[in-house]
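Human: I hope this is not a bother. Would you mind checking the protein record under this note? Thank you for your patience.
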Amino acid sequence: MDLTANVKAALLLSQSIYWTRHGRDIAHTGGWFLKTTEQWEMETGLSAKEQATAREVLRKLAILSEQRAGIPARLHFRLCVDRLGALLSDRIGRASASLDWADGAAVAELLGPSLAYHRTLAGICGGVHAGLLLSRALHLTRLQMRRQLREWIGSSASAWTEQIGLTRREQEIARRELARVGVWEEVLVGIPPRRLARIRLDCLLARLAGDESGDANRIVLPYSPECGVATINSRQKGETSMRDYHIHVLPKAPKLIQQKRHHCFDESANLHIQGSTRGLVQQPPTRETIADEGRSQGRGGDLILPESLLPEERAAALLLLKPCAPQAQALLDELSARMQARAVHTSPLAYLRGLVRRAQAGEFVPELGQRIAAARRRHEEELILRQQREVEQQRLAAECATPEHQAKVAARRAKIRQLVGTLQAGRPPEKRS
């Protein structure tokens, strides 16, 4: 982005670098690759006009070549890797040398820190700038939630410019677009006023799931139990709010979904035993009892979700699974197994969405998820046995505490003492102890 001084040109350049490094026939074509306008738009979110402008910027920098080839003639592109390597080396003050673009470490050193950009967000938020701003805000929000901090993020216009390259005007337009679609909320707090922003994750998840109205009455996130006008308790001592406003007027609070956490390998189970001095104890729990307790405590109702999912990811997962409810638990088990095997390298939700599509097409075959289900059944059986042993111990303890049992024990002891005394009386004097 520093090289092109243009966010959209930087996005097109990033995608060109990707295809130059990972294209299937790049080595045989001399670095040339074919991309139609529709393909560029699908991959980057840039319109045809935005693509033309971005390509013009890259041509002026002499780092992108174009030519028409084939029958019919179609536009092909080639990245001038030597020129690009020289420009990047000059930018970081390193001597220019031939760069092996297959060397990931060397390329990462030249390009600098990566910046997350989710193409899907550009499609639902009105453009690349809004998608980039929302992608960065999502990254910051995830960091906040992992640290158990508030979900409000604060960055000045200059900080946003430094992080994502958008000018102040581009930021304002992007924020208005995000507020228009209902996924962005802002407030001013303190003196001097400081702007804080928050992503309305419930509305964003609804839009990602295909609900264009953004109606998220089916979802509530644990960090925002009320989706009304939020209250900010971030003022320091002695600060008073100069003025508070919200860009977006929020709808009514959605219906709540039970959000208590449940893990498929939860080691805690409450055994409710009715105490009595007459030996009246609760019957041993059955598998159905354990399953009912698990469902009542689970975050997904009847479904058991992977523990490592973030709160907002759990809500989105439940929404994604609605079209294939009969297979929902099998899909979650497969996702959990893949995450445990570290086979999910991107977003867990993206992987789950792929599983859902396969299930809807009738092509889903559980591979690793069956082990998760079997482990959960074994755990339930062990839990039942453990609780049955505890119930038996409670029953024996209650039985031993009854007066009748204590009287029987005392009678046995007295009889034993009497027998011992009789035996000792019948022995010769020299053998008595």
